[in-house]
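Example complex used in Figure S2.
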Amino acid sequence: MSKSWTERLFGGFRKTSDRLSENLSAVVDEEEAVAEEEAAPDPEPEPEPEPEAAAVPEPAPEPTPEPEPAPEPEPVSAPAHIANPAPEPAGIVSKVTTSMRTATLDDATLDEVEDALIVSDLGPSAAARIRAKLAEKRFGLKITERELKEAVAEEIAAILRTVAKPLEITAFPRPQVILVIGVNGSGKTTTIAKLGHWLQEEDYGVMLAAGDTFRAAAIGQLKVWADRIGAPIVTGPEGGDPASIVFDAVKRATDTGIDALIVDTAGRLQNKTELMDELAKIRKVLGRLNPEAPHDVLLVLDATNGQNALSQIEIFKEVAGVTGLIMTKLDGTARGGVLVAAAEQYGLPIHAIGVGETLDDLRPFDPDLVAKVIAGVA
Ligand SMILES: Nc1nc2c(ncn2[C@@H]2O[C@H](COP(=O)(O)OP(=O)(O)O)[C@@H](O)[C@H]2O)c(=O)[nH]1
Ligand SMILES: [Mg+2]
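Predicted assembly (378 residues):
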């Protein structure tokens, strides 16, 4: 048998976790380093792996908050590591023993967690929400690195669950028209092939339409994919009118009993009005054939774009009325955190994620699993 679903997901998806995971590790490591320095003579009996016992505020020698004149290490007072979050490659060196390390979830640590979330692309809003939840549930408690990551994963999952929504083929009458939009290079054409393949595996009849007539190569590329998955395709000439191709395609799909018609489009974001006009025209033509169409307007986003993905949502929402998202290239990035920012800020359904270049590399969006991968506890 080939590799399992999870294995394959993690196989290509691992990098996504690195960023947040390492940043969270650094939070615990840093705190530990501070604690070691301050409580050098008599460290508290920490190798007690009992979370419950460690949880109660014990009468351990509380480190005095006064700034001690440490010789060479950086100042250890609270504001210092907030103002100066990464003066050295903290954390990475001492990873071996991390499982026993703990941090106290006080305001300073929560600040660092929040910072770690923000620099990992989760966005200020999600970061603040996660921080608040952690504070609500665990303020003042000791927490190991693993527990911290699991707690963060749980809060990320809570955000992602609200947007996880599989793409369902429910249109009546058929076909369900799925318009796929996004900037050039985001992975539209590849995602169309993957999605077509996925729907075929669920026994739906699929047809593709080459609405990206801007470049001849785009039409050819979609044709190759259509042949590969054995789906009929409707094309027009290079530079042709996408709306008329879509019109033909819907008629043909209706006549041949197709369930899902997936339409490729040109991603010319440089010229917003032109793109808007083009999409408006497609909509108008579709509406004439079926007032419900397009049933889905899927925005394909490249996760390696990080924060840029967010501004693309903003623009395409305005231009095209996006109904759902697919995030691609999560296999090649440490920036999966942007999914959380997108969920928090826009609340648009996330239907699937792309984790590679082959037909099998589209995955259902599993919020719990993705949250664990992002937080580094998968
Ligand atoms: N690693 C990786 N590459 C992808 C993924 N999706 C698409 N690509 C690649 O991204 C490039 C652009 O994809 P394409 O579908 O042509 O983008 P389009 O311009 O939006 O139609 C191609 O080389 C694809 O193989 C993905 O999930 N992971
Ligand atoms: Mg394309």
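The CA atoms of residues 67 and 77 lie 6 Å apart. The longest helix spans residues 15-38.
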